[in-house]
Amino acid sequence: MPDPDLIHITKLAEMYRRLGERYGFPQWRSHGDAVDELVMTILSQNTSDVNTGRAFASLKAAFPGWQAVVDAPTEAVIEAIRSGGLANQKAPRIQNALRRILAERGAFDLDWLAELPVGEARAWLTQFDGVGNKTASIVLLFSLHRPAFPVDTHVQRVCRRVGVAPANASADRVMATVEELAPAEWYYPLHINLIRHGREMCKARNPRCEKCVLNEICAWYRA
Ligand code: SF4
């Protein structure tokens, strides 16, 4: 019986190489301030990138700073982010997260998380309502350049289909598998390429398997 870890690491390495040859190996670039990234990622839940950007810009335009967002009536924050969808849910989450960051750190600052081991930093962020491992990992990887691997629906789907993780693996299981098996410098390019691949080729419905650079190693295709 082949060692499942060996299968996963071999596929992971091959997937990384093939996606990189297809799309390039994106270099890490800062996505900006970590508090901004946290707020933006909360806004991005269950909506498109366009709506997220619109809601974030509207929030920034409506208030002069994070303190004003914390002090504002929740209805005013809801109004400011309405274009992003689920505003009734997201506004209190944003206010609560900002309030706790300020209460615990005395400033709207998350840069200090870069000094913590990733597991501790992620555990600190996931205390907030509405912040799961995906959101926490995005903040850690994109803003703070820490070795955290965010798993969204595209990343999860491609990894499961190819067989990098079990076919029924949760997003957290996929995250743990990649973080255990892949070198940290792969996380950023692999994440970016998997999202692109999931959107353009390995769609939830009607994946374009015949044209896919992963089809030779894909368990789902072979089955
Ligand atoms: S072969 Fe098909 S199922 Fe497999 S990764 Fe490519 S598009 Fe997705």
Question: Could you explain how this protein is built, in words?
Answer:
The protein has 223 residues and is mainly alpha-helical. It has 2 domains: 4-28 and 149-222, Helix-hairpin-Helix base-excision DNA repair enzymes (C-terminal) (Endonuclease Iii, domain 2); 34-143, Hypothetical protein, domain 2 (Endonuclease III, domain 1, Orthogonal Bundle), CATH 1.10.340.30. The chain has 12 helices and no strands. It has helices spanning 4-23, 34-44, 49-62, 66-71, 74-80, 87-105, 118-125, 133-143, 153-162, 171-181, 187-200, 219-222. The longest helix is centred in the N-terminal third of the chain and has 20 residues, at 4-23. It starts with a helix and ends with a helix.
Features:
Endonuclease Iii, domain 2, globular, 223 residues, mainly alpha
Name the beta content range: under 5%
Q: Could you tell me the CATH topology label of the largest domain.
A: Endonuclease III, domain 1
Structure ligands: iron/sulfur cluster
Radius of gyration: 19 Å
Secondary structure class reads mainly alpha
Identify the CATH architecture of the largest domain: Orthogonal Bundle
User: Mean of residue pLDDT?
Assistant: 94
Helix content: 55-70%
Instruction: Indicate how many domains the architecture comprises.
Output: 2
The multimeric state of the shown protein is single chain
Low-confidence stretches: none
| H/E topology pattern | HHHHHHHHHHHH
Apparent shape: globular
Give the terminus-to-terminus CA distance: 19 Å
The largest sheet, given as strand count, sense and whether it forms a barrel, is:
none
